[in-house]
């Protein structure tokens, strides 16, 4: 398997390449999701990194697996609302660390809001493990 460290550096390189300056992160609140997001975030907090001051983590959200045992649509609608709240619209990329079931439910909730929101376009970057 590909390490979180390698994946985090790769995702950070994509963020830098496209000059995205505001990023929203979301992860499952398990060891895998929390570690991956922490490693990704630390890249931009490292004062020795010349790109650190160019990227702002606009918001950080967690998918609470203990509160989410029924995987209800309402839970994901609330998360998607937090992702697209007006004060967070300046973030053009969402970085996700977690596994497929949670990513798919979140993407479905975001897609259902797409027709109700402005033409604001967001990109969704996910770690390797999300497809499993």
Quick recap:
Helices cover 42% and strands 18% of the residues.
Salient structural properties:
single chain, 132 residues, alpha/beta, four-stranded parallel β-sheet, 4 strands, 42% helix, 18% strand, globular
Note poorly predicted spans.
none
Measured as a percent range, the helix fraction is 40-55%
Describe the strand arrangement of the main beta sheet, using strand numbers: 2-1-3-4
The chain-level structural class is alpha/beta
Bulk shape: globular
The count of helical stretches stands at 4
Structure summary, number of beta strands: 4
Please state the oligomeric state of the protein chains shown: single chain
Measured between the Cα atoms of the first and last residue, the distance is 12 Å
Query: What value does the Rg take, in angstroms?
Result: 14 Å
Fraction in beta strands: 15-25%
* Order of H and E elements: HEHEHEHE
Largest sheet: 4 strands, parallel
Can you describe this structure?
It is a single chain. It contains 4 helices and 4 strands; from the N terminus they run αβαβαβαβ. It has helices at 4-17, 31-45, 73-84, 100-114; strands at residues 22-28, 56-63, 93-97, 123-126. The protein starts with a helix and ends in a 6-residue tail after the last strand.
